[in-house]
Structure formats: structure tokens, C-alpha cells
Design brief:
- The chain has five helices and 17 strands.
- It is an alpha/beta fold.
- The chain has two domains: about 180 residues, FAD/NAD(P)-binding domain; about 110 residues, FAD/NAD(P)-binding domain, CATH 3.50.50.60.
- The strands form four sheets. Strands 1, 2, 3, 4, 5, 6 and 17 form a seven-stranded mixed beta sheet that branches.
- Strand 4 and strand 5 form a beta hairpin.
- The mean pLDDT is about 95.
- The structure holds flavin-adenine dinucleotide.
Length: about 300
């Protein structure tokens, strides 16, 4: 069904679990598809999951990278077109056309948006400058570099609590800073955090400033009730304050919820006909590999049904 090298039945934006599944299913159904991924590897968030994944039916892996390699190996046998380092910088959803950062344009009869989510940053001055110079992205991966150092973790959910427990195994001290008075995480983590001799919690505090020349040497936090500032002697910072969807491209073109997640119906179709969404970008309630993979399949099936309804 491929009409030209620039025109496809389906363009899939994002090569994580949802996008890979969507492209595989397009191929399965005989739809010509182009899968576009901005990074230099497929796999999305999975490439940065350092814990075991045991809850996706059919495969258990030591970490997310191993799972993403299995997904990529399986899709390599398929004949859909794919491009890495292909960042979509503009979409015209009505026309089903996309433009890459390089200026190249592609069109399709249907689009599947599978752009996922990214970790929320603090949004404070200097944050960018200290990335990998004190700011780490995983407790599990960085447990050794954190040995005998002071670590500050920001956040109040499961991810913050679990990382505090992991890092407390090697770090000298862990400061856990949360803007609210109560933690939201699971009771099993919270109980362990509360009694851990190396973990000190600061509730009702936010991070104001990162201090240091090249690397972080101290972190300034603010008591939200009193406005009083306090310096914490932490050289390592881990931010776990949730995620936000990669949906800026779509603003003003389809319905998004208040947080920017894409609104879809039971077929994964958005508010615009023949524009579908799959995976975390459209699924804040259940951001899992299983859901992402299933939604990719659902979207491809629905597109196939729509394109063939007149036959
Ligand atoms: C630490 C951690 C642990 C986890 N553990 C589990 C677990 O045990 N079990 C489980 O089921 N799930 C787990 N998850 C969640 C799971 O990884 C995600 O639900 C799933 O990978 C989401 O896939 P996705 O394809 O929707 O999005 P993503 O993986 O976010 O993929 C989106 C892709 O789109 C690309 N993209 C974005 N914008 C553009 C653009 N403009 N142009 C081109 N490409 C673009 C991105 O680069 C990315 O590759 C975990 C997640 C994390 C972070």
C-alpha cells in the first residue's frame, strides 16, 4: 500500500514500546508504516529502566534495556520503514503531515502519536548545568557513585521513597525533600523510610538552589510555611517529582487533558479522525509496558478497519 517514499498509510511518532507495537501491527495488517524516533535507538523509557521487569506477560528481563532489545529484535523482521534520529518538530494533524527537524516532510492517511512521557525537572536556575555533575537519574544505577556521599532526593511518591531506600544502602546520608506534608508512596516503603537511620525527611520543603562550582556541593531548600532557607550538605541530587507527556507538538490541534495527556476513545482515536495515540502519552492511569503494547495494537487495528470500511 506504500504510495511513495514520503507517503504512507500510517506514520507512527515515537519508537518506545507503544510505537514499536503499533508499527509491528501495521505491518501485520498490510498497512505501510513509517516509524519515527528522535533518539539514536528505539526503546524509549525502557532504555533507562534499571530494575527487573517481571510484570509484562510473556517475558521477564533483568532491566528495561534487555526488554527493549527483545522488542527491537522482533520488529527487525518486519518490513515497515523506520528512522532513528528523526525528531518530529511540526505536525499538521488535519493534513496528516509531519515535518522533521531536518526539514523533511512525510504524509500519511493516519497518524499514531506514541511520544511517551519525560521526567519532570525542578525548573530552577542551574539545573541544566549540573546534569551529570551531581544530578543523577537513577538510584539503582548510581548506588556505587553515591557511596559515602550525601544524597538529596526530591519527591514524595513510590519512586522517591524506593530510591531513598536503595541509595541509603551505600550513601552516607539521604535527605528526602517533599513539598507536601504527607508522602504519597506505598506504606511498605514509607514504614522503612521512617525508621531508616540514614534517611532524614523534610516535608513541606522545596529545593530553591543548587550550589557548587563545577559539581554540586550544597543544596538550598525552603520551608514553605516559614519561607526560611536552609543549606543541606548534599553532593548528589535525584529528582522524582513525576512525569509529563511529550505532547507540545499537538497543542491546539486535538483535545488534551489539563496535564497535557492526549484524550482518546476506546479505539485509541483522538478528538480528530484518523489521528490515534498510544502508550504513556495518552494513558496517565496505567503507564505500563503491557498497556503501551496493547494500545499500539488497538490503534493499528482501528486504522485498518477504518481504511478498509469502504471496501
Ligand atoms: C524507572 C521506570 C521503571 C518502570 N518499570 C516498569 C515495570 O516494571 N513494568 C511496566 O510495565 N512498566 C514500567 N515502566 C513504565 C514503562 O517503561 C512505560 O510505560 C513504557 O515504556 C511506555 O512506552 P511508550 O512507548 O508509551 O513511551 P516511551 O517509552 O516514553 O517512548 C516514547 C518515544 O517517543 C520518542 N519521541 C518523543 N517525542 C518525539 C518526537 N517529537 N519525534 C520523534 N520521537 C519522539 C521518545 O524519544 C521515546 O523514544 C517503568 C518506567 C520507568 C521510568
Amino acid at each position: 500500500m506504500n504510495k511513495s517514499e514520503k507517503d504512507f498509510d500510517v506514520i507512527v511518532i515515537g519508537g518506545g514500546a507503544a510505537g514499536l507495537s503499533a508499527a509491528l501491527w501495521c505491518d501485520e495488517l498490510g498497512l505501510s508504516a513509517l516509524l519515527l524516533e528522535k533518539e539514536n535507538e528505539f526503546g524509549g523509557q525502557l532504555r533507562r529502566v534499571y530494575n527487573r521487569i517481571e510484570n509484562h506477560l510473556g517475558v521477564e528481563t533483568e532491566n528495561g534495556r534487555e526488554m527493549s532489545e527483545i522488542f527491537v529484535r522482533q520488529t527487525e523482521k518486519r518490513s515497515f520503514a523506520k528512522r532513528l534520529k528523526a525528531c518530529v518538530s511540526f505536525v499538521d494533524l488535519e493534513r496528516k503531515s509531519i515535518i522533521l527537524q531536518t526539514g523533511e516532510e512525510y504524509t500519511a492517511r493516519a497518524l499514531i502519536v506514541a511520544t511517551g512521557v519525560r521526567r519532570r525537572r525542578l525548573g530552577i536556575e542551574n539545573e541544566e548545568a549540573f546534569l551529570e555533575k551531581g544530578i543523577i537519574d537513577s538510584g539503582k544505577k548510581n548506588a556505587e557513585p553515591a557511596r559515602e556521599k550525601n544524597v538529596l532526593i526530591v519527591g514524595g511518591g513510590d519512586a522517591a521513597l524506593e530510591n531513598a531506600l536503595i541509595l541509603a544502602e551505600t550513601a552516607r546520608k539521604v535527605f528526602l525533600v517533599h513539598r507536601r506534608k504527607d508522602f504519597r508512596g506505598r506504606a511498605e516503603f514509607l514504614e522503612k523510610v521512617r525508621v531508616h537511620p540514614k534517611i532524614e525527611t523534610f516535608t513541606g520543603f522545596i529545593v530553591r538552589r543548587l550550589i557548587g562550582k563545577e559539581f554540586i556541593s550544597e543544596i538550598e531548600i525552603e520551608n514553605l510555611q516559614t519561607g526560611k532557607l536552609r543549606r543541606v550538605p548534599a553532593e548528589i541530587l535525584l529528582i522524582r517529582i513525576g512525569v509529563e507527556p511529550n505532547t507540545e507538538l499537538l497543542r491546539g490541534q486535538i483535545s488534551l487533558d489539563a496535564e497535557g495527556y492526549i484524550k482518546i476513545d476506546g479505539n485509541c482515536e483522538t478528538s480528530l479522525k484518523m489521528v490515534f495515540a498510544a502508550g504513556d502519552a495518552a494513558n496517565p492511569a496505567s503507564p505500563t509496558v503491557s498497556s503501551a503494547v496493547g494500545m499500539g495494537a488497538t490503534a493499528a487495528k482501528a486504522i485498518y478497519a477504518s481504511l478498509n470500511s469502504g471496501l
